[in-house]
Specification:
The protein has about 550 residues and is mostly helical. It is built from 18 helices and 4 strands.
């Protein structure tokens, strides 16, 4: 339970307010497009599995491309990345409208074009979410994330109903055109925004290397890893509600496109209520209790939707489910952001999105198959049972408290001078650090070094080992390597203020008051030189003329 004072409202920050409002308008258009796509697939006479695949076609690109998009967002100008993504979605939406208007639309063409729009969303999302932390103070980040969810669900509360009305009166092509126009406002705001970029002290990472660093950071961060597991289970089960909603509107309620839009609108209204109440709930409940409440709301809503033939009860159940949806997902999102330093936050969020939206894509497909053979009611009851299973899993894998540690860089390490000339690409670099520890302090030292191992590997060290000198029981040697000197510099600059207690523990356990002895070495191969040529001492000292160098 938290008793922290309320943070300043993110809406007081002009750029956040402008982007938030423009994003809400874009989300409004996206939901209108979603209604048009789902109902067009229904009107084409497609099977229940194909109808459910409309949801999958939107979620699958996020699972496939998020990590790549996160690496791009961490290495490039986030504003330009968002602008490129919005432009791509604008063009894809125009293509969708043109295909629908010309009468050439088929189920597979519809899925292909919605997949392309999902690709734009996948590119945009990590950059936008990572930019929030640059726009608002850290203390306001949970509120900003909740506001993002609320903005989306304000659009969800009215957008689907408007989308249903547009489809009913003017057809799906009009809904697709409205979506295309909704991107224009955000494109204008992004084009005019000139954020202050911090100076880049190191070259950009290659995309493949950056993606690997993001995966490694998440894998070596226990709190983020646990959030991923819980979010994946929740997303898989929660996907049944939006995936089954067209079938609920058509088969259970016996309605049309307008009914479908109203159902989505009630889900959105509940989500707005959940976003508005999330701050109040966060002050009174632990993170695990908050997720449990949200999961129970989602399960109760899904099960009720499946059995209720009465529209008012279905509306209420959808509102409850929508509240649980946004509370749980915003809690997962905040947990990941607060557990990630700025250099990797977009990639951590991307991995989170891969887990959640991949689960949603798979869940939509699976529940579509269940609905095809057993009907949507059975699919919704199965989803509710899976949500309750997630609560039971929480007894063993409880959600960690939202991190309050300071993840700003320590900024204490300085690149050392070397007698042997070195270049950023020179390597491999092998590091050994000597620690002298009294015998009685060995158990505490080993515990501290276990945490040091996790930190080293998380920040890019490879082959980490701890050695003890057989002739001198007080001497311990920490050893690891990195591919290049530039990787060594990155590794040390990634240390955060939250890692300082581990360094302090080791300092108190070491004998003497000085710093440990550090050896930085470059690996070299042995053997004859080409053509039997002999090099002089100066040439051997220069890594650019050393033919045995390994870069």
């Amino acid at each position: 339970m938290s008793d922290t004072a309320p943070a300043p409202s993110p809406l007081a920050v002009p750029i956040f307010r402008a982007v938030w409002l423009a994003s809400m308008a874009s989300n409004f258009g996206g939901l209108i497009q979603s209604v048009g796509a789902s109902w067009m697939m229904t009107s084409l006479g497609a099977s229940a599995e194909m109808i459910a695949l409309v949801q999958t076609s939107t979620s699958l690109p996020i699972m496939l491309l998020s990590l790549w998009a996160g690496a791009i967002a961490d290495n490039l100008d986030k504003r330009k990345v968002m602008l490129a993504a919005q432009t791509f979605m604008f063009i894809a939406s125009l293509g969708l409208a043109a295909a629908a208007w010309s009468g050439i639309m088929t189920p597979w063409l519809l899925l292909s074009l919605t997949f392309l729009i999902g690709c734009g969303t996948a590119l945009n999302s990590p950059a936008w979410q990572a930019s929030v932390g640059d726009m608002v103070p850290r203390a306001s980040l949970p509120s900003a994330v909740a506001l993002n969810s609320m903005g989306f669900n304000i659009a969800r509360s009215a957008g689907p109903a408007v989308g249903g009305a547009i489809v009913a009166m003017a057809g799906a092509a009009a809904a697709f055109l409205v979506n295309a126009l909704s991107y224009v406002g955000l494109m204008v705001v992004l084009a005019r925004w000139r954020p202050e970029e911090p100076p880049r002290l190191l070259p950009r990472e290659r995309i493949g290397v950056a993606m690997g660093a993001g995966l490694r950071y998440v894998a070596m961060s226990p709190s983020i890893r646990l959030v991923m597991i819980r979010a994946t289970i929740f997303g898989f089960a929660a996907s049944a509600v939006p995936a089954m909603m067209p079938l609920v509107a058509r088969d259970v309620i016996q309605g049309g496109a307008l009914t479908y839009g109203l159902l989505l609108g009630c889900f959105g209204l509940g989500a707005v209520g959940g976003a508005l109440s999330s701050g109040w709930l966060r002050q009174r409940l632990s993170t695990e209790a908050l997720v449990r409440v949200a999961t129970i709301a989602m399960a109760a809503g899904a099960s009720t939707i499946g059995v209720s033939p009465f529209l008012p009860i279905t509306f209420l159940a959808l509102a409850v489910a929508g509240g649980g949806w946004v509370i749980a997902l915003s809690t997962f999102n905040v947990s990941v952001q607060m557990s990630s330093p700025r250099w990797v936050v977009a990639r951590a969020l991307a991995v989170y999105q891969m887990a959640v939206f991949g689960a949603m894509a798979g869940g939509s497909w699976m529940f579509g198959i269940v609905a095809e053979h057993q009907g949507p009611v059975w699919a919704l009851h199965l989803a509710a049972a899976l949500q309750l299973g997630g609560i039971l899993l929480g007894l063993w894998l409880a959600m960690p408290a939202i991190e309050a540690g300071n993840l700003d860089p320590q900024d204490r390490w300085r690149e050392p001078d070397t007698t042997v000339p070195i270049e950023p690409r020179s390597g491999p670099i092998v590091i050994t650090i000597e620690h002298r520890v009294a015998v009685e302090n060995v158990p505490a030292f080993l515990a501290a070094m276990d945490e040091r191992r996790r930190i080293r590997r998380r920040d890019g060290a490879r082959g980490w080992t701890l050695l003890r000198d057989l002739a001198d029981p007080q001497l311990w040697i920490e050893r690891y390597h990195v591919p290049t000197w530039l990787d060594y510099v990155r590794h040390n600059q990634r240390r955060t203020l939250a890692d300082m207690p581990n360094s302090d523990d080791l300092r108190t356990l070491r004998l003497g008051e000085g710093e440990p002895v550090v050896h930085r070495m470059i690996e070299r191969q042995t053997g004859l030189l080409p053509f039997g040529r002999m090099l002089g001492p100066r040439e051997l000292a220069d890594p650019m003329t050393d033919p045995t160098r390994s870069n």
